[in-house]
Amino acid sequence: MQQVVVVGGGVMGCLGALELLAAGCSVTLIERQSAGRESSWAGGGIVSPLYPWRYPASISALANWSQGYYPELGQRLFEATGIDPELTACGLLWLDHAEADAALAWARAQGRPIEAVDADFLYQRVPDLAPGFRGGLWQADLANVRNPRLMTALLTYLDQQSHFRLIENSPVEALLEKGGRVVGVRHAGGQVSADAVVISAGAWSGGWLERTGERLSVDPVKGQMLLYRAEPGWLRSVVLSEGRYAIPRRDGHVLVGSTLEHAGFDNGTTQEALDSLRASAAKLLPRLAQMEPIAQWSGLRPGSPEGVPFIGEFSGKPGLWVNAGHYRNGLVLAPASCRLLADLMTGRAPEIDPTPYAPDR
């Protein structure tokens, strides 16, 4: 049985562990703090890139596969753990979008059900939408997942598996190498031997790998969010305008996001972001202006060139693998990325062409 160490306890680490276990591996997951508490927890959970037509084909390939797989994943986790990740096909409205022609051409080419809609449709779908919108784009089957519940379900499921071990609050300090191969890691609480090591440390992946002599273009990009509480069903669909969105949860909570800030590893919240997000919320849904946000938080996305992740083995360091750099689309791309990782690590024929994601590209 192949022994694998996965460094990083976010959605990539947890779902990667799940896929590797299913492929017959034994997995030790090591997290520097509590698992699932960084960007996987902080994101909005829209199961699509915000503007999918702007991305290269390599992103579409991962997103399309993941969107098809999420319902099965959510159901499997719910049945095994009793925790519902609340994958909800709520649809997404892009409002007054200037790139409608490009979006519709992309949708035709990809076979995605995006259509142009008029103002009547908008206000029938979202009666409390701010006045003045003339039309937009609509994708009825687009879903959102309640990512904190997804992470809890994943961790609960993994804990049930006999060949899985979780080590939390223990930063990985160094690789163990022997005979030109990576054979494990040293962490704050000891050592773990392995046949392979996977770095899935999100925004920290680039800096961590640099200490091993490998270069990876992954840098932190902060995003801040607001949370409101409304009655269930008040907002039925995700609405998106000028880069800002409102996301409904089943219990009536509404998320508004998100900022894009290059501030290193500073993950604090700011008054400036609070004011900006509140203004965006009111511009989309004026009723939110009458409410006080009940929470504000931030997360650090793993930024990468064009948002294309790095998935594969480092040619100069056998036994060292990576699955990181998903930028704004970690939750969107995670199922496909982790299936591809497991395919490559176990020698199966990959379901997705791995070439665009090679870490040495």
Could you walk me through the main structural features you see in this protein, from its secondary elements to its overall organization?
The structure is a single chain. The protein is α/β, with parallel strands linked by helices. The protein has helices spanning about 10-20, 40, 55-80, 100-110, 120-125, 145-160, 205-210, 270-285, 330-345, and strands at about 5, 25-30, 90, 90-95, 115-120, 135-140, 145, 165, 170-180, 180-185, 190-195, 195-200, 220-230, 240, 245-250, 255, 295-305, 310-315, 320-325. Strands 5-6-4-14-15-16-13-17 form an eight-stranded mixed β-sheet, sandwiched between helices. Strand 10 and strand 11 (about 190-195) form a beta hairpin. It starts with a strand and ends in a 15-residue tail after the last helix. The mean pLDDT is about 95.
Notable traits:
alpha/beta, globular, 9 helices, 361 residues, eight-stranded mixed sheet, 19 strands
Question: What fraction, in percent, of the residue positions are helical?
Answer: 25-40%
Count helical runs: 9
Mean pLDDT: 96
Strand residue content: 25-35%
List the strand order in the largest sheet. Answer: 5-6-4-14-15-16-13-17
Structural class, from helix and strand content?
A: alpha/beta
Low-confidence stretches: none
Oligomer: single chain
Summarize the main sheet: 8 strands, mixed
What is the C-alpha radius of gyration, as a whole number of Å? 20 Å
Order of helices and strands: EHEHHEEHEHEEHEEEEEHEEEEHEEEH
> How would the global form be characterised?
globular
End-to-end distance, in Å? 30 Å
Total strands: 19
